[in-house]
Specification:
The protein has two domains: about 150 residues, Alpha/beta knot (3-Layer(aba) Sandwich); about 60 residues, tRNA(m1g37)methyltransferase, domain 2 (Trp Operon Repressor, Chain A). It is about 30% helix and about 20% strand. The longest helix is centred in the last third of the chain and has 19 residues. The protein binds S-adenosyl-L-homocysteine. It comes from Pedobacter metabolipauper. Pfam families: tRNA_m1G_MT (PF01746).
């Protein structure tokens, strides 16, 4: 799967993709993540990518030309399944959306800044708008990194057995069960005996009960359907 991320702050996206599972996915050739600097597509000498809002008011607005130039250039090279704009007023990201997007081929992700992006970019180019929650951040880069991480770890072949996504919270209707590692006794705080029993069926049963109890206590809404 290929991600083309368009941003005015490419440096913000260097670290999130350079480590751990996301780095491995790229090395394995399962995910390709290309970050484009919006300023490179600016049409004026000052390399500006924003301007004052029509009608007045506070905050700068990102201009249509640089985004249009970058998106059209990308579309001339390959087909894209989605052009996603990260936006607090979009549909809220969840595991279902991440699963769905993990089956796509090529996607473009637009990161906004300042007051937002010219509405015409959204009307003309964007096919999907995604929020990472009901709060406002300064830019779309961290949301884009969150989205790509949530998607890439679901692409078959990215996770190995030890990090399998199948038992993760939200993958089914249950939250994940509690987990423990050595030592079995830390200052008198012991790991539940069942986990040391070696009895796989009983351990699975215990994990299911724990996951169910945790879901009932924390997120009863997940059990409603
Ligand atoms: N005026 C806009 C917020 C602009 S914040 C509004 O009230 O809706 C600047 C940029 O940060 C946005 O264009 C978007 O790309 C990004 N952003 C901020 N919060 C976000 C969130 N919760 N989810 C996704 N993107 C977000």
């Amino acid at each position: 799967m290929r991600f083309d991320i368009i941003t005015v702050l490419p440096a913000l996206l260097e670290s999130p993709f350079a480590h751990s599972i996301l780095q491995r996915a790229q090395k394995k050739g399962i995910a390709e993540i290309v970050v484009h600097s919006l300023r490179d597509y600016s049409t004026n000498k000052q390399k500006s990518v924003d301007d004052y809002p029509y009608g007045g008011g506070s905050g700068m607005v990102m201009s249509i030309e640089p985004f249009a130039k970058c998106i059209e250039g990308l579309k001339a090279m390959r087909e894209y399944d989605e052009v996603i704009f990260m936006s607090p007023d979009g549909e809220t990201l969840n595991q279902t959306i991440a699963n769905e997007l993990s089956g796509k081929g090529n996607v473009i992700i637009l990161c906004g800044h300042y007051k937002g992006i010219d509405q015409r970019i959204r009307d003309l180019f964007v096919t999907r708008e995604i929020s990472i929650g009901d709060y406002v951040l300064s830019g779309g880069e961290l949301p884009a990194a969150v989205l790509v991480d949530a998607i890439v770890r679901l692409i078959p072949g990215v996770l190995n057995d030890e990090t399998s996504a199948l038992s993760d919270s939200f993958q089914g209707e249950l939250l994940d069960a509690p987990v423990y590692t050595r030592p079995a006794d830390w200052n008198g705080h012991r790991v539940p005996d069942i986990l040391l029993s070696g009895h796989e069926a009983k351990i699975n049963e215990w994990r299911h009960e724990q996951a169910l109890a945790r879901t009932q206590a924390r997120r009863p809404d997940l059990l409603e359907d």
